[in-house]
Design a protein that fits this description.
It contains 7 helices and 5 strands; from the N terminus they run βαβαβαββαααα. α3 links the parallel β3 and β4. It has one domain: 3-Layer(aba) Sandwich (Rossmann fold), CATH 3.40.50.10140.
Length: 209
């Protein structure tokens, strides 16, 4: 088992440009509470099958966030995306059948619209699923409330987290400009690179601008 199991947080979502504002804000929120966000794109080892990497992330993380909001097809004849529900199912299996310490796993399910998931996964009826309405600030509030509800973390409000996220973004932008990056370069950063910068920001005392 990963020695960081107790602070690892697996985020299961679709990686596309439209979702990046929500994903990056969620990663910041998790990091701000002292957790170590884990995402499938953090590794690019072509020799390791994706499913094997996902299983390892699930097994190594006590906390998991599964966002089902990007599962729907966006145009005619496009297939429904099943990766996120599939990975959620694997995580539930780990929680219920893995035994200790996996029986202590904590799972948050997000959606964009309330109750929309019931049309596709009716087995989740009765589960606590939070809707973020496609808004990154709302998503941060949902994650903050989920973590705060377990009483294991610093008592900090969503408004403060969002203000600190803005501080981080300004710090990151100025750091990249000073390092010779153009606006286009900065806009083209990867989420994995941004996550590393978030930890750098914390290590430097969370400077404000």
């Amino acid at each position: 088992m990963d020695s960081d199991f107790g602070r690892n947080a697996f985020v299961n979502c679709l990686f596309d440009k439209a979702y990046e504002p929500i994903l990056q804000a969620l990663l910041f929120c998790l990091m701000r509470f002292g957790l170590r966000p884990r995402i499938a794109s953090e590794q690019s080892d072509a020799g390791t099958p994706r499913l094997e990497r996902i299983l390892e992330l699930i097994k190594s993380s006590r906390y998991s966030i599964h966002d089902l909001s990007r599962c729907q097809a966006s145009r005619v004849n496009e297939h429904y995306r099943l990766n996120m529900p599939f990975e959620l199912g694997m995580d539930f299996g780990c929680l219920h059948y893995g035994g200790p310490p996996y029986s202590d796993k904590l799972i948050l399910i997000l959606e964009e619209k309330p109750y929309r998931y019931q049309a596709a996964i009716s087995d989740l009826a009765g589960s606590d699923i939070e809707a973020h309405e496609g808004d990154y600030a709302t998503a941060v509030r949902k994650v903050r409330n989920w973590l705060a509800g377990h009483g294991e973390f610093e008592f900090i409000g969503a408004a403060q987290i969002l203000a600190e996220y803005e501080d981080f973004q300004q710090w990151y932008y100025q750091r990249q400009l000073s390092a010779g990056f153009s606006d286009d370069d900065i806009q083209d950063y990867s989420t994995a690179d941004l996550l590393r910068a978030m930890f750098d920001w914390v290590d430097q005392g969370m400077p404000r601008h």
